[in-house]
Amino acid sequence: MAEEEKFLTLHPAGKKGVNILKRRYDLIKKYIIQEVRKVGEISYQDLSDQAVKELTTTFDGKVAWYIVSVKLDLEARGILGRIPKTSPHKIRLVNP
Fold first, then answer.
1. Distance (Å, rounded) from C-alpha 20 to C-alpha 7?
2. Is residue 1 part of a domain?
3. Residues 56-72, mean pLDDT to the nearest whole number
4. In terms of CB atoms within 10 Å, which of 17, 30, 67, 79 comes out highest?
5. What angle do CA 82, 84, 86 make, to 5 degrees?
6. In the predicted model, what is the mean pLDDT of the chain?
7. DSSP letter for each residue of the chain
8. In a domain, 73, yes or no
9. What's the structural domain count of the chain?
């Protein structure tokens, strides 16, 4: 059986990223971008809670862990940005 393609994430603070299956990365990335685009800005907590609620029955992994890993990768790639001085921190698309 062929091994599935993996993807190495980036971290905004320059820390070592994590290797995850590309199909899982792509699904979570699409979900995050779609949800943030819908509302403009969202708290990380709300995004994570919503993803767990919507994806847990169909996603073959720990939804909350993938949300944080992919969110950090998207921040490191300049796709998502944290909104300064928000608590809990909020995120938005850098170039919507």
1. 5
2. no
3. 95
4. 67
5. 90
6. 94
7. -PPPPEEE---TTS----EEEHHHHHHHHHHHHHHHHHHSEEEHHHHHHHHHHHHTTT-SS-HHHHHHHHHHHHHHTTSEEEETT-SS-EEEES--
8. yes
9. 1
* CATH code, domain carrying 88: 1.10.10.10
- Among residues of the chain, what percentage have pLDDT more than 70? 98
Strand partners for 46: none
Does residue 79 sit within a domain?
A: yes
**In this predicted model, what pLDDT tens digit does every residue of 1-46 receive, in sequence order?**
678 999 999 999 999 999 999 999 999 999 999 999 999 999 999 9
Give the separation between CA 16 and CA 63, rounded to whole angstroms.
21
Matching residue, tokens 């603070």: 13
pTM for the complete prediction? 0.93
Range of the domain at 40: 6-93
